[in-house]
Amino acid sequence: MNVFGIGIDVVEVQRIASSMAEFGSRFAQKIFTESEREYCEGQKNPAIHYAARFAAKEAVAKALGTGIGKDLAWLDMEIRRRDSGEPEVFLSGDGEAFARSRGIQEIKISLTHAEHYAAANAVVLAE
């Protein structure tokens, strides 16, 4: 496999918390899948987990070279945790179609967060 692209993103946790306070569930439903929302809301500090997933989606969009738009929507990406705790990304819809058409085999992601910031990087591997 070859590296198709890499991406990184850093998000201020307060920015996500403010958006959630201002726009409520509309913001979360536009950006995060139901499964992601359930996971984040089950955590002690939901905003920090939302911020990490937001950063992951931005990093994936950068690594794919699409940005968020025609070929890849927010809800085309879902950030999950394996039983081991390792994060993984699942693509659906237009995002999955784009990846398939480019021979993308795997997307590796890493998330991190601290009190004020969350960050993620993504590496996209293709045939």
From TrEMBL:
Family of this protein: Belongs to the P-Pant transferase superfamily. AcpS family.
Keyword list, A-Z: Cytoplasm, Fatty acid biosynthesis, Fatty acid metabolism, Lipid biosynthesis, Lipid metabolism, Magnesium, Metal-binding, Transferase
EC number: 2.7.8.7
Domain called 4'-phosphopantetheinyl transferase: residue spans: 5-101
Function: Transfers the 4'-phosphopantetheine moiety from coenzyme A to a Ser of acyl-carrier-protein.
Pfam families documented for this protein: ACPS
Entry-linked InterPro entries: 4-PPantetheinyl_Trfase_dom (IPR008278), 4-PPantetheinyl_Trfase_dom_sf (IPR037143), ACPS (IPR002582), Ppantetheine-prot_Trfase_dom (IPR004568)
Residues binding Mg(2+), per UniProt: D9, E58
Reactions listed under catalytic activity: apo-[ACP] + CoA = holo-[ACP] + adenosine 3',5'-bisphosphate + H(+)
Any one GO molecular function term: holo-[acyl-carrier-protein] synthase activity
Name of the molecule in the record: Holo-[acyl-carrier-protein] synthase
GO biological processes: fatty acid biosynthetic process
Location within or outside the cell: Cytoplasm
